[in-house]
Specification:
Length: 570
């Protein structure tokens, strides 16, 4: 074999590597050591130095402080029957940015919320730049759970309370309503909002990245429930009062009406009814007229029901007795250019007969003989022209002009119920002095635990005389006979007042009233009925209001187990 072949057959070996330099090795080792040192320092920094800060930052993304709703206090009648209660509900809300974008999931959510898909999409689009939106408020727990069971991202639940009124429209204006956040907006719900609402609590909770509750961490503050409010009204009497008032308003095609029944012994409001009313449990079609508690916030000229109160001022002087005779002939008189009329010429009447016949002339002649301040002081002492101080929002004070401004015609008009304004509640309260031996009792919407303060207005003999005189008004041949209650002695006074407007008194618009006390032998109840603008020929108080008094008062006396005091044949 040739030398060239042997050289080709022998494999070539790579040249041997030169050994790494000592400097390069040291650099590599240093870099590794430095990297390990930095990593260690970072571990120390994260776990020791910045541990608290980082833990707080993590907790801020997982721990939340939530408000715990406080249970609103219950409102009850005097016997503990519920009139307003709060029931648990669930409000669903969402972070629009976390809600599913899938059309199928959106459709499932819309159906569970009982809304159209287009409506849901429109709402999500409207709140897209925000982190909060309501899906549905105040659902029943069962309905809310059906939505939560879909397990969709971004949907959250919050426990709340919703107000429910078992008596509905019967007590609507007195109780008022709460808004969607369970805060009082009208009536006693508004007046006692701080007391009823209670104090919300706080808790710390752990939630996942979707906002779902993982566990309760800590209770920070317990929720303190609101206090319960016990009213003076008797729910049984309230139902009867509202039923009869509503029936009378419908029968006479009236604009509305109000009724107030007081306990003659302490001034507690046993019943307060108004119509028109509204259903506080369904506010989808509320008539704003029905929101007003007319018995407290509206005032009017009361007409002849004021005559017994003016008569009390006359009987308190040495000048008049129940049998004092007043000449009312010829049945009319002119004062300051105004003409005052009686229904007819009654001639000579005793003071008792002036009330029985409801003589404007008789009352005018009596009042004109009194000092100006005498009548004003009597009305003032009976709470007229002053706020009743029941605490009800918007309660009216009414008005009684000061005597320095009185003309003779105005002084005469004030004695038969014109030229001043009162509410139904004020009128009923004024009559408590007649029923309670001359002592005026301020009205109370709440049940009283102690004896009320009574103000002596006139002597017991005057109140006894007035009761006997007013009892004659309810006899079979008198104008108030429709107010009679079988088995009981009743005292009362009818009233028919023309309504006033900006241009003067309206031609065919009246209010029919009846104010009464029963039983006469031991007064327990004072009731005032006002029918606003009855249409037709039957607009007199003795026709439209007296029958309501009879039905309501009769039922109340029997329910309160008041023994009959009327003698057979009377």
């Amino acid at each position: 074999m040739s030398e060239d072949r042997r050289e080709a057959a022998t494999p070539r070996r790579p040249p041997p590597m030169e050994p790494m330099g000592a400097g390069r090795y040291v650099v590599m080792v240093c870099l590794v050591v430095i990297a390990l040192g930095l990593l260690g320092m970072r571990i120390v920094d994260l776990h020791i130095i910045d541990r608290t800060f980082l833990q707080d930052q993590g907790d801020a993304r997982t721990l939340r402080t939530e408000s715990l709703s406080a249970h609103r206090g219950m409102i009850t009648d005097r016997h503990g029957e519920p009139l307003a209660i709060s029931t648990p509900v669930v409000t669903l809300w969402a972070d629009p940015q976390d809600l599913p974008v899938d059309d199928i999931q959106r459709l499932m959510l819309a159906r569970a919320l009982d809304m159209e898909l287009s409506e849901l999409n429109e709402r999500i689009s409207r709140y897209q730049d925000r982190e909060f939106m309501y899906l549905r408020r105040q659902l029943t727990p069962k309905s809310a759970q059906q939505v939560l069971d879909l397990n969709l991202s971004g949907v959250h639940a919050e426990k709340e309370y919703r107000r429910y009124y078992p008596s509905g429209e019967v007590t609507a204006q007195l109780l008022g309503v709460t808004n969607v956040d369970d805060k009082g907006q009208e009536g006693l719900e508004l007046a006692y909002q701080p007391y009823l609402s209670g104090t919300p609590g706080k808790r710390r909770v752990l939630k996942d990245r979707r906002g779902r509750l993982v566990r309760d961490v800590k209770l920070l503050q317990e929720a303190n429930p609101g206090g319960d409010l016990t009213l003076a009204i008797d729910q049984r009497l309230q139902y009867m009062a509202y039923r009869e008032l509503k029936a009378a308003v419908a029968e006479h095609d009236a604009k509305g009406g109000s009724l107030v029944m007081l306990d003659a012994r302490n001034g507690e409001v046993l019943a307060m009814a108004n119509t028109p009313s509204f259903n506080p449990n369904d506010r989808s079609a509320i008539d704003p007229k029905g929101l007003r508690n007319q018995a407290i916030v509206d005032v009017f000229e009361p007409g002849s029901v004021m005559k017994p109160l003016a008569m009390s001022a006359a009987l308190s002087t040495d000048r008049y007795e129940p049998d004092t005779v007043i000449d009312t002939a010829p049945g009319w008189m002119r004062i300051d250019g105004f003409t005052i009329h009686d229904f007819r010429n009654y001639g000579r009447l005793t003071m008792a007969e002036i009330l029985e016949k409801s003589s404007n002339i008789g009352m005018s002649r009596v009042s004109l003989e009194l000092d100006d301040v005498t009548l004003w002081e009597r009305y003032n002492a009976l709470g007229l022209g002053h706020s009743p101080e029941t605490g009800f929002p918007g309660e009216a004070a009414g008005s009684v002009p000061p005597p320095i401004q009185w003309s003779r015609s105005q002084k005469a008009a004030l004695s038969y119920g014109y030229g001043l304004s009162v509410s139904t509640l004020q009128l009923a309260s004024a009559y408590t002095a007649i029923a309670n031996d001359g002592k005026y009792l301020a009205p109370s919407l709440l049940k009283l635990n102690d004896e009320p303060d009574a103000t002596r207005v006139f002597e017991p003999e005057v109140s006894h005389d007035l009761l006997r005189m007013l009892e004659e008004v309810v006899q079979p041949d008198a104008g108030g006979h429709r107010a009679a209650v079988a088995g009981y002695r009743v005292a009362g006074k009818t009233g028919t007042a023309r309504k006033s407007s900006a241009g003067g008194y309206e031609k065919d618009a009246y209010r029919g009233l009846f104010a009464g006390i029963a039983p006469v032998s031991d007064p327990r109840i004072v009731t005032v009925v006002m029918i606003d603008q009855p249409r037709g020929d039957d607009y007199y108080g003795g026709i439209v209001a007296a029958p309501v008094f009879s039905k309501v008062t009769g039922s109340a006396l029997r329910l309160l187990d008041v023994p009959p005091d009327q003698q057979a044949g009377r």
